[in-house]
Amino acid sequence: MAPSAIPQTPPKEVQQSDELLAAAVTKKIATTEFGSLPHLDASLLKVTKTTTPMNVPAAGDPIINTASQCTDHMITAVWNSTTGWGAPELKPYGNLSLAPTASVLHYATECFEGMKMYRGFDGKLRLFRPDCNCQRMLTSATRISLPGFDPKELEKLIIALVSVDGPKWLPEPGSFLYLRPTMIGSAGALGVAAPKECTLFVISTFMPPMDPPKGMKLLASQEGVRAWPGGFGFAKVGANYGPTLMANSEARSRGYDQVLWLLDGLVTEAGASNFLVVWETKEGKKQLVTAPLKDKIILDGVTRRSVLQLVRERIPELEIVERNFTMDELAETAKEGRVIEAFACGTAYFVAPVSQINYREKDIDIPMSKGNSGEYAGKIKQWLVDIMYGNEEHEWGVVIDEVGGLASNCLYSGDCSPTGQIIRCFMAWMICFSWSNGIDFCLHSLISDGGLFGFFR
């Protein structure tokens, strides 16, 4: 039985009411908090392209596995409480300058997102549900007292970076790069208070696949907890991650891949990923069970959300149950042979089957019916791969224009405003009509990466 401190899942209508209220509050924060101060505006993007481009690591280069090799450019934007959001910039990748008294260094006023850009098997560049990541980043920012913004504007800025660095840094079909949008309190003043200045930046880096090929082994936590009711476990803030490192190190020293986080015996997350288990009830009903979002203890994972939606649409015989459940309940179900499979999911670990859980110094083996995966995890993972890499056309797979796009349509090194774009197009057409190659060549030049738009970059 779940501890009384955390209530069982409320009726569906109550959950829907909570979701509507949360959406209304988020919208209000994003649109009215700063009154007449300038909001984050992607149309003001200033572009300065690098004059010292870096070399792309060759396949197999060890640096790829370090998650330290970034691409040529980054996005930055600065907000302060007096002037609001300044014009965002796309500029050469480089270090940030912070005062030693910056709020982020003392009070952990920061949040971030994790997402990927994918080079499809069809050659196209894609993002996977970027709107979800940008909306979640707004939720995290407001939880940590950082400024609000329109998630659509952040999405446009991310797309701008992808459209510029994607062609060079992600040429191989079936590959990906990791994207890290981040916001930090950058005001140079001590004091436990909401930062008066904030820096937004977006970078892209190589990231190795992290899901263990033979299944993930988890060590169930007996003492430490990751999050608690009334806290901030639902927000993607650094304070949710740093304190877990000691427990993760202990787990790895004992031969396990990650910690299975418990709270008063309740199963919450696996490492920094959502945890899901497929089991059969005593009545013979197959269920996909995962911790609920309502207690705000776990992260509303984009992969988790996608997994649940795909299961609802494509595996109707598998009942989705979002509720609190204990490790004792899971252990008892496994002992009775009713656990079918389990897996973790997230941007980093993707869909990672679980092969074993250590609980109270006893290893519980989790079935993997397909050798290196369970049947359901294998299906779900393949469906997601197909969407991410273009084998299946789906609204979640957002194709990125590598020719046009916000950043590549900018006049010279700076002006991405509507006026700047109009001037640029007019100049390009004037040059076209001054040549004798004909209209067909002009049209081709205007839409080619190496054509007239390339000339004005």
Strand content: 15-25%
Corresponding CATH superfamily of the largest domain: Aminotransferase class 4, branched-chain amino acid transferase, N-terminal domain
Which structural class best describes the helix and strand composition? alpha+beta
Largest sheet: 10 strands, mixed
When the domains are counted, the total is: 3
Could you give the distance between the termini?
63 Å
Number of helices: 12
What does the overall shape look like? Answer: globular
Number of strands: 19
Mean pLDDT: 86
Quote the CATH topology of the largest domain: D-amino Acid Aminotransferase, Chain A, domain 1
CATH hierarchy: architecture of the largest domain: 2-Layer Sandwich
Percent helix range = 25-40%
Radius of gyration: 24 Å
CATH level 1 class label of the largest domain: Alpha Beta
Low-pLDDT stretches: 1-22, 28-32, 408-417, 427-457
Cofactor: pyridoxal 5'-phosphate
Protein name: Branched-chain-amino-acid aminotransferase
GO biological process, one term: L-valine biosynthetic process
Keywords: Amino-acid biosynthesis, Aminotransferase, Branched-chain amino acid biosynthesis, Pyridoxal phosphate, Transferase
